[in-house]
Design brief:
The structure holds two protein chains of two kinds.
Chain A: H1 8-18, H2 20-47, H3 50-67, H4 70-82, H5 84-89, H6 93-114
Helix pairs in contact in A: 1-2, 2-3, 2-6, 3-4, 4-6
Chain B: E1 10-14, H1 18-30, E2 34-38, H2 41-50, E3 55-58, H3 67-75, E4 85-89, H4 94-102, E5 107-110, H5 115-154, E6 159-172, H6 175-181, H7 184-204, E7 207-213, E8 216-221, H8 230-254, E9 262-277, E10 282-287, H9 289-304, E11 308-311, H10 312-317, E12 324-330, E13 339-344
Parallel strand pairs in B: 1-2, 1-3, 3-4, 4-5, 9-11
Antiparallel strand pairs in B: 6-8, 6-9, 7-8, 9-10, 11-13, 12-13
Helix pairs in contact in B: 2-3, 7-8
The chains are: A mainly alpha, B alpha/beta.
């Protein structure tokens, strides 16, 4: 279920402001774009590319907040501000956790979109 | 372009993230604006240079060219530096906000942007732009294009710089009896037509009118922007002014109205050009011996009974063929040395 993954108040406000049909399209756009951001994070980690890592985390954080994906947003924010080092030190664990959370967010948004 | 009210402005949204771009554009469209989008700073600059926008909404963290770089480019671009910019970013840290404001951004909104806040800030940004446009229009109207450009490029500061140029004084002969012979409205009408003709001739030859006093005017050729052939330009402008007055007189005669004659004095050399006055009220002008001499030459046109008189320095600076009559040296009040005076033949 969406509870805990998506803050419903934020999501409803988004719909009220931008229109339900538009938000459906926006969710589709996010679901199409987000996997590339996750790829970017993985590649940046592998290539030790701090700029790319920060930018991808930043983008994911920003979109998460838009849809009310608070936990995902918080995790992305930690990657953005913390940089590569803590993720490298933890052997990529924070990135795996973020990928799992994204999967939950994607499911919830897909449900909410249909509702 | 945007006119009055704040609906229907042309806005450019720059964000590398598609969701952000779409959502911001949607919010703005719902507020009645026309929105174009760009996915990075480089594309945005290309669009800004190709078409007119009323306001820019700028993300900071972007590939190719980020928002800071865009702001830096805008500040140094004369055409674009007055464009209001609202930064929309989820970049954290007060130093980033400060940096944007220092680089000329109007405002900094954190993403996700609250639509109500967005509307208020856009309204304020557009209002500022409207006032700036109005101000620019006033400067254009009251300051001549060259001075307006100089003000825009170098800013305003009292004080002058040495320049080489030509100064012209022009005056309507026997203006006082003319004023007394007709109703005041007719005099204002006549002056307005006269000034329109004189301004056209002067600016058409690269000069600027720096002073209007009653029926007289002072024009500068070679400042604030340098003019390589300032002597020729001044003399050619003078010839055109006489020609225009002759045509004007034909119309006046046909309408049974009084005709006018003008006298023009031109002197060339070094002078000090700049803004004089106070910080509250200033004017662009030139001062120095050259200016005094041009004024004396204009007065001397009545004594010599010629329309255009120039000094030796102007004659020496002429590159093109201009027919002159040497009137010999004249000693002017306040000058220790006699000055060679030349009369410019009319109808050249």
């Amino acid at each position: 279920m969406s509870e805990g993954t998506i803050d419903l108040a934020t999501f409803e406000e988004l719909k009220a402001n931008a229109g339900a049909d538009f938000v459906r399209e926006l969710v589709d756009t996010f679901l199409a774009e987000a996997p590339a951001m996750l790829d970017d994070l993985r590649h940046a980690l592998a290539m030790n590319d701090a700029d790319r890592f920060r930018r991808a985390a930043h983008s994911l954080k920003s979109n998460s907040h838009t849809f009310g994906a608070l936990a995902l947003g918080a995790m992305a924010r930690e990657l953005e501000l913390g940089g590569l080092r803590p993720v490298q030190d933890a052997d990529g664990a924070p990135l795996e956790a973020l990928t799992l959370e994204y999967a939950r967010v994607a499911r919830s948004l897909t449900e909410l979109k249909r509702a | 372009m945007h006119k009055g009210g704040h609906g229907g402005a042309r806005l450019l949204v720059v964000d590398d993230n598609k969701v952000n771009r779409l959502l911001l554009a949607r919010n703005l469209e719902l507020q009645g604006h026309h929105v174009a989008t760009a996915e990075n700073g480089r594309v945005a600059l290309e669009m800004l240079r190709a078409e007119a926008f009323d306001l820019l909404l700028l993300d900071i963290e972007m590939p190719e060219m980020n928002g800071f770089q865009v702001l830096e480019k805008l500040v140094n671009d004369l055409q674009l530096r007055d464009l209001p910019v609202i930064v929309t970013s989820s970049l954290e840290g007060l130093d980033n906000v400060v940096r944007c404001i220092e680089l000329g951004a109007e405002d900094y909104l954190t993403k996700p942007v609250n639509p109500v806040l967005l509307k208020a800030r856009i309204g304020a940004g557009l209002e500022k732009k409207r006032l700036r446009d109005q101000q620019k229009e006033l400067v254009r109207r009251f300051a001549t294009p060259e001075v307006a450009q100089d003000l825009q490029e170098s800013g305003f500061s009292l004080g002058g710089k040495r320049v080489r140029g030509s100064v012209m004084f022009s005056d309507i002969r026997d203006f006082t009896p003319l004023v007394e012979s007709q109703p005041p409205e007719a005099t204002i009408d006549l002056l307005n037509t006269y000034y329109t003709l004189m301004f056209n001739a002067i600016s058409g030859h690269g000069g600027i009118v720096s002073l209007i006093i009653g029926d007289g005017l002072m024009a500068i050729f070679g400042a604030p922007l340098p003019l390589t052939d300032h002597c020729d330009s001044a003399v050619r402008a003078a010839l055109e002014m006489i020609e225009l007055i002759q045509l004007f007189n034909v119309d006046q005669a046909a309408a049974g109205k009084p005709q006018i004659r003008i006298g023009i004095g031109i002197a060339s050399g070094e002078m000090v050009a700049g803004y004089t006055g106070t910080n509250e009220r200033a004017t662009y002008t030139c001062i120095g011996d050259t200016v005094n001499l041009a004024s004396r030459l204009e007065v001397h046109t009545k004594i010599a009974d010629r329309s255009i008189l120039i000094d030796g320095a102007t004659r020496a600076g002429l590159r093109g063929d201009v027919e002159l009559d040497a009137l010999g040296p004249v000693t002017f009040r306040g000058k220790s040395q006699p000055i060679d005076v030349f009369s410019v033949k009319l109808g050249q």
